[in-house]
Design goal:
binds the ligand C[C@H](C[C@H]1O[C@@H](n2cnc3c(N)ncnc32)[C@H](O)[C@@H]1O)NC(=O)c1cc(-c2ccc(F)cc2)cc(O)c1O, binds magnesium ion, alpha/beta, 7 strands, seven-stranded mixed sheet, single chain, 44% helix
Amino acid sequence: TRSTRPQRLLNAVRKHATRGDPQSVISAIDHFCRHSEWAMNIGDEKGSILDSVVSELNPEKVLELGTYCGYSTVRIARLLPPGARLITLEFNADYAAIARQVIAWAGLEDRVQLVEGASEDWIPRMKEHFGIETFDFVFLDHWKDRYLPDTKLMEDCGLLRKGTVLLADNVICPGVPDYLQYVRNSLSYKSCYFKSHLEYTKAEDGLEKSVFLG
Ligand SMILES: C[C@H](C[C@H]1O[C@@H](n2cnc3c(N)ncnc32)[C@H](O)[C@@H]1O)NC(=O)c1cc(-c2ccc(F)cc2)cc(O)c1O
Ligand SMILES: [Mg+2]
């Protein structure tokens, strides 16, 4: 049977990246997506903005919604101190299987817990199942119509604390208008927009950084 694009992406990682070297995994995926096949990773341009937000925050507890092949998982986890934890949710089993191998190739499995399932099912179980009190940093990169309901769900489950940072991908393309309207007008958030481009293209896209004020 024909291979899938995520399988071909993983093959490119195995062929061109060095085991245990996260930067080489990131570069191999970016090269594959620029020169072979486009894929919906955050990419190098928006990825650098993600890096700067994570580095400035130095979070201990991180949640990622929408793992896909694990590219942003690797970008975030490589910047975390060893004691820190990243939980990433992915409900497509095939993508989750690829992401596990990408994360392992980067040598970051000790910091990452990939959970196969839907965000709406797992967010309410974070406390009792993972012993998480609150998250320091949340990266939203899953179905664009889930950003707003899942943000409200995280609020209701008490998973956000004063100062928790939400960073949302694709706020222009494909776009998340209801989420943007909410975080930009709610008195519970301080929000700002980082203008960039859709991964590996010249189309406009950007990241929205929103600090929960409690
Ligand atoms: C949604 C996907 C990313 C992943 O998220 C998982 N997922 C979903 N909903 C849930 C859940 N509720 N819980 C857990 N996981 C969940 C899924 O299975 C994908 O693997 N991302 C995108 O669709 C995406 C699309 C584009 C894009 C832009 C321009 C175009 F012309 C075409 C596509 C760019 C991006 O940067 C994206 O991020
Ligand atoms: Mg995205």
